[in-house]
Each structure stands twice: as C-alpha cells, then as structure tokens.
Amino acid sequence: MSAKKLASIDSFGQPVSVSGRNMKLELSSETVSVHKSGIEFRSPTPFTEWSEMTVALQSPLDGSKVSCNGVVVSCAGNKHSGYHVSMIFTGMTRSAQERLNILARSELGAG
Fold it and tell me: If we measure between CA atoms, which residue out of 15, 76, 75, 80 comes closest to residue 51?
C-alpha cells in the first residue's frame, strides 16, 4: 500500500460501504483511511486475507460515488479490540482513479 494518503480519516463524512461475498459493512468515516492504492479500516468483525471485496466511497465534494474492487492483504486484531483491515484496490477504472486523484488534489488531500 502506498504511504501517500488520498484523504484524511474523517474527510469523507459519509459512511463507507465494504462488501464481500458473505459480509457487508457500513463504516463510519472515522474508522477509514483511504490511500492512493487501497484502504485501511477498523472492523468489529474479521475479514479473510486474500478475499475479494468491493468498497463504495461517496465524495463530500460533489456527492459522486467511487466504487473500487480490492483484495484484503492484512487483518490483525481480536474480537475484543476489533480488527485493523488493509485492502489493496485492483483493476481500478480510469474514471474511478481520476475521481480519487481529484480528492487527493483538493483540500482533503493529506500530502
């Protein structure tokens, strides 16, 4: 995962939807960190590493939605303190990548 963040943890303001074959979560923006090539989030439930997931982000700038497919590359934690999940985006469409790049160049970008 790239060290360059696209947006600060609370910059999306809208819930982030993460879904897989047998699971769907609506995450608060405080638990999410979006990067150039992936996403990290806190989850009350574990995710299986290497499972394919879909992430839906809604931009606070214009309300547009960005849908990304990805693979869980790490899930660490326990049922008492929660899980830290890292996911890498795969097969980003040009349109989705451009929308994420616009967020990176806006006041929401973190560097």
Answer: 75
